[in-house]
Structures are given as structure tokens and as C-alpha cells.
Amino acid sequence: MSFSGRKPVVLVTGLSGFIGGFLARYLVAQGFGVVGTCRLRSRLSPDLLKACTRIHELEIDDKTDWSAPLSGVEFVVHAAAHVHVRRPKSTDLDLFRAVNVDGLRRFADFSRDAPVSLFVNLSSIAAEFDSRGSRPTAYGESKKRGEEVLAEVLGTSECRYLSLRLPAVYGPGMKGGLKWLYGVVKTGLPLPIIGDSPARSYLSVWNLADCVFDCLASEQPLNVSVAIADCETLDMQALIEVIAAASGKQARGVRVSFRTVSFMSRMLGKRQEFERAMTPASVDAQEAARILGWTAPFSAAESWRRVSMAASDAH
Description:
Layout: E1 9-12, H1 18-29, E2 33-38, H2 46-51, E3 54-57, H3 67-70, E4 75-78, H4 90-113, E5 118-124, H5 129-132, H6 138-154, E6 160-166, E7 168-170, H7 176-187, E8 191-193, E9 200-204, H8 205-216, E10 224-227, E11 233-234, H9 236-246, E12 253-255, H10 258-267, H11 271-277, H12 285-292, H13 300-314
Helix pairs in contact: 1-8, 4-6, 9-13, 10-11
């Protein structure tokens, strides 16, 4: 699609989040006008406040009024969600439904009537539990149901939709286990290594942003759910080596038994992160190439180098 010199307007939700904030900045740099939503404007950085043409504070549920945020908007990138938590409580279970399912249905209804040209929904590979044979989580089930709701509402409309299923995403401002691992590797301290750890897929925010931009510029019918990832799958040793090289450190590891590392992870309060890292979660990178005509332009080595550069610039 050629924008013919005009400035297309995209609504990015979850502006205060790691992914939403990055995508908003990236799309502004690519010439888009960005309208953003967040729960609290006070959580946004000054550069993000300046970059967006409009910012709307709102809660996402089945009563949200999307009229004002969608005014004049051609595209939607929906990054907001009630995200995975280590030990979900009953309130989390309620929010998975309210935000990720009912809230998305309401949003899709408004987008259909706006009308929006393309609705990009950032989902999760946790939604693929049926095909992976893994145990479903409440979060994964909510993301799967959200994809189904989007298809129900927009499937017969002129608004195209695309659900991008994401593995663990990393980049400046990342959180969770990858942030912790990056911090430990940067110290240069030796890490315990399990020789037969499974290969997993990861996704840098630069590759994610490139895919989103490519889809916004595409005139393909889309209307699918598809997983995207960096081209490489990495076991734990390979991931540590890539991070170490990007940080100018030597990868130092001590091979130990599964039982020993499991015990250490419990002592450090990282049991669930360890269990997740020991669960196979690979994405067929060729699926996105076949369905979207897109392949990740940045290698894991280049992406982690950019993470290190951003960390250095922040200091």
C-alpha cells in the first residue's frame, strides 16, 4: 500500500507498556500519526507524550466508549491486555475475561463501525495450547478466546483483522525472566547450564515493529492468526552466549543437573521462570513467510546488540 504522501493515523493501545510504547515511537518515526490509549497518562515518558497526536485515558472492558479514540483513525494496533502473571488470583482471572475477551469484543465492535481498515491484535503463543499439546493457562485461554471474538466481529466486515501470536518479547524496557537473565549475564558471573534445555523462540521488539509496519502497509486480505518470531530458536546455553557477546562479556557456564538448577530457581524465587524456560516453545518462522510474506530482518545477535546499546545510552 502506498500512503501517497499522506500521514496515516494509527491507534496504539497500551501506550504505557513495554511493547505499546515502543511501537508508538517506531510508527511515529515511520511517518504515522499516532493516537494512544493508556490507563494513566502520568506513567508516560515526556517523549511519548510529545510524539502522540492524542492520548486517551481509559479502562478496557465491555463498557468502554471507543468513539473518541477511534475518531479519524485508519489502523489499530492493540497491545493492551491483562498480561500473564506468575500466580494468578481470582481478580486476575476476572480481568483476563473482562479485558482480553469482553473488552476486545467491545473494541472490535467500535472498530468495525468506525470504520477501521486493519485491526492488528497482539496475541500470544500461549493461545496455541491446543496444537502444542501443552497445558492451557487462564491467560492463554483468554488470548485464544480474544482471537475468536475478533474473527466473529470482524470476519464479515470491511475491517480486516490480524492476530499476531508472540513468543517472549525482548528489547529496551523488557520485563520478567529475560530482563533478569540479561542482568545476570551482564555481570559476567558463571551461570548454571543444563545441557539438554529445549530450544525456544523469542522476538525482538525491532522485528515485531517491522512486522506490524509491513502489515499496515499491506493490502492483503489477512483475517488470520499467525505466530511470528526471530528466525533463530535458542536453547538456554545459546541464548546466554548471544546475550554475553552482545554485552561484551564472555559466556561462562557450569553444567549442572536439572534437579540442582530447579532447586536453585526455587531458592531465588524464579521457579516459574525456570519451568517456563524448560518448556519447548518454538515457532515455525516460515509460517509468517507463507501467510504474511514477512521474515524477521534482524538476527538475535543484532537485536541483543541493540538492547545493550540502549542500556548503555540510558546510563
